Amino acid sequence: MGKIYIIDVTNRDGVQTAKLGLSKLEKTMINIYLNDMGVFHSEFGFPTTKHEKFYLEANEELADLGVLKPIHLGGWIRATAADVEMAFRLVPKLKHLNLSISTSDQMIQGKFQGRKTRDDILQTMVDAVDVARSYGAKTIGVNAEDASRTDLDFLVEFASEAKAHGADRFRYCDTLGYDNPFT
Question: Fewer CB within 10 A of the end CB, N or C, for the chain?
């Protein structure tokens, strides 16, 4: 039987909830509790955000000391080579990354105003995965933003290219809530 891996996003997505502010200490305590509960992976923050640098580094140090083991602490960033480079420059001990990029035609058009095509999205993601591997990332997750509205053939191509370039995980993101139990 396969194994189930739980990925918690409280310290990344949860803190974006209105009226929910967590201190760096509270976020660290959440990581400790998640580790104690056996959670596989915590998206613990944004390594390209300078005000998170010391919190992220401190948690990576706790992992190195064995306090946060075996949980994986993953940074969430845009799937661009520049963001990967910045993440490793700001948080050199970063080991696990989640790279996120829009994949639906609606989001590509809305975000990039005609400046990017599906091929550009694929190349941008592949370049980001390659750069992450070159910096020594142990695990790389690739997130398809707005996957629920993405053309299925393109989504399969996107996931396949991510895997071919060394991504460990593909995440189907229902960014805008279009999926439901009946779709």
Answer: N
The length of the chain in residues reads: 183
Question: Where in the chain are the domains?
Answer: 7-172
pLDDT average, residue stretch 145-154? 97
Which residues pair with residue 142 across a beta bridge? 99, 170
Cβ atoms of 84 and 128 closer than 8 Å: yes
**Distance between CA atoms of residues 92 and 102, nearest Å:** 26
Predicted confidence (pLDDT) per residue in 90-133, tens digit: 999 999 999 999 999 999 999 999 999 999 999 999 999 999 99
Q: By the 8 A CB rule, do 175 and 108 touch? A: no
- Asked if CATH classification 3.30.420.10 holds for the domain at 7-172, the reply, yes or no, is no
